[in-house]
């Protein structure tokens, strides 16, 4: 169809444009359209022409987004709507938590239901696009910086347990978007552990503003994944500073981050002893990013390769002393594995709640399938695994907050929770049967998202190695 013919059909469908296509009457129709979408009704049939109108009108697209519309829009692209069930009651906390922790738990539950879940399928389909609108809304209420110290402008909730409470609730909406919202915490950890006050102010204070940048952590390389001590990226001493050369892979927020902590070795062949941490900034000469990788799941976070072509850095870009990088990395892993365990728990819980609701409503052989033993036992196993995952996560978080070593407990939490997420999303899909295999329901997406939890920050095999070593050492 010609462009001219398309424009004629669009004009016929919309009628007179009105002032700026943003008149009060148009906005009234838009309110009705969004209400129908959120209710799961056929809004396109009830308000004919509105979809095409949105594609051609920036003012109404902005209004559409502000109303909490259930899908993001790229002109000419049709996205799926996410199913948004009624808010379920928060699960009982396994330990007593403070009123502040309870408050942020409810805030995150509501944010996930109202802001994350409705757009999650659209973000998944967009594949390699950052959901900036959700990121901006999260920043406005402090969810992107709650984990940073108050003296740097953050929320001051620096304890690991609060981070896990937040992560579970956000990932209950969508694991990919939830992990994106808290991703600056992964960058901040080595800066807080190894950096001095000037460095912390330089790179962490900007993360606490109304429009914070995204950041990244670069460890993985084409030939160095689980074996972080074998990294080949080098930091050669030169002119009172360093020259970084090498390649990193699977960098979360790659290509869109302003700052990146890069782990490189100052003594090739020395293993973990030479690993040092440096901060690379977006405008540094010699820094380039590969194209976004097309992934199976958790597509809200863009992943790319990072290329360092003789990048010259002054000495003040190094965090801590030479050789301190591996210590900072291991500290980061201990905490990040617990946090990712919380993310996996939230994802598994979403699958449990969705499958349970479906099993109550789906009738076969004259009664809801939840009353059939095979289905009910599967739901029971899901609930058991979800609660066990939360207990393991919270235990590890409490140990870290008490200043105790928790490497083994962190690995247990991450291992159990990630495998629970994979199993529970499978079980949810199985409960929905053919509908679970379709893209009409979110469980197939959740199953794709869950697989990453068994891989990132150390595969399940690595977690078992860590646990086994802890047993032998102790």
List keywords for this structure.
474 residues; alpha+beta; Butyryl-Coa Dehydrogenase, subunit A, domain 1; Butyryl-CoA Dehydrogenase, subunit A, domain 2; 4 domains; 4-stranded mixed sheet; 4-stranded antiparallel sheet; 17 helices; 10 strands; globular; disordered N terminus
Structure report:
It is a single chain. With 474 residues, this protein is an alpha+beta fold. The chain folds into 4 domains: 3-66, no CATH class; 99-208, Orthogonal Bundle (Butyryl-Coa Dehydrogenase, subunit A, domain 1), CATH 1.10.540; 214-324, Butyryl-CoA Dehydrogenase, subunit A, domain 2 (Beta Barrel); 327-473, Up-down Bundle (Butyryl-CoA Dehydrogenase, subunit A, domain 3), CATH 1.20.140. The chain has 17 helices and 10 strands. The chain has a 4-stranded mixed sheet, with helices on one face. Strand 9 (363-364) and strand 10 form a beta hairpin. Helix 8 packs across helix 9 (175-181).
